[in-house]
Design brief:
This protein is mainly α. About 85% of the residues lie in helices and about 0% in strands. The chain has five helices and no strands. Helix 1 runs parallel beside helix 3, helix 2 (about 35-55) packs antiparallel against helix 3 and helix 2 packs parallel to helix 5. The radius of gyration is 16 Å and the shape is globular.
Length: about 120
């Protein structure tokens, strides 16, 4: 039954990633991959909040599988992040590539820590 929770979460996460990416990117006239940046940081925030909720006893392993592994696993995308960074480098946009790497890592870590803090504030 656990695999079904992961599948259901992924069925929601994958199209959500695509639709969010397209919606965000269409609003920015830039070579910077804002859509991927937004879905990855959002996934970090969700996963941090879920981790904090689990640590506080407010969520269990089934929710971890559904939301953490399924939804966040399909929502976030390291492969697209890597590919877009490579493409930025290949097209001479090295500064954007560096900003993507540094910004994504810093914002992702910040979001996961913020998520844990939010959960602690709600359920501690």
């Amino acid at each position: 039954m656990n695999w079904l929770l992961v599948v259901v979460g992924a069925v929601v996460g994958a199209p959500l990633r695509y639709l969010t990416d397209r919606a965000v990117q269409s609003r920015h006239d830039s070579v910077f991959p804002w859509g991927t940046f937004v879905v990855n940081v959002t996934g970090c925030l969700i996963l941090g909040t879920l981790t904090g909720a689990v640590s506080a006893g407010a969520a269990g392993s089934h929710l971890q599988l559904l939301v953490g592994t399924g939804l966040c696993g399909a929502l976030t995308t390291y492969s697209t992040f890597s590919y877009e960074t490579l493409r930025l480098t290949e097209t001479g946009a090295g500064l954007y590539a560096a900003a993507n790497v540094v910004g994504s890592v810093m914002a992702g870590l910040g979001a996961v820590f913020a998520g844990v803090a939010i959960a602690q504030g709600l359920w501690a």
